[in-house]
Amino acid sequence: KSVLKRVRQTARRTAINRAGKSHLRTQVKRFRQALVAGNLAQARELLQPTLTLLDRSIRKKILHPNTAARTKSRLVLRYNSLAKQGSAAPAAR
Hints:
Layout: H1 2-37, H2 40-59, H3 65-92
């Protein structure tokens, strides 16, 4: 009996985690696309929600804390390098 209950619980949790991970990947992908396109304004808008979503995925045990920290670090580094280039370009002209 308890085995069947565990199977149901696992199936439910797997579905929830899969949906959460998919949402997270989509958000990160949107942010990266904004960076690649050089759209600093859109990237600035998406940065905070993306980082918040990564933190939430840690709390819900969807991602390992180190994985989320590494992802956050890389995203912020890319954003800062783009922002630095964006602010340096008008000064050079």
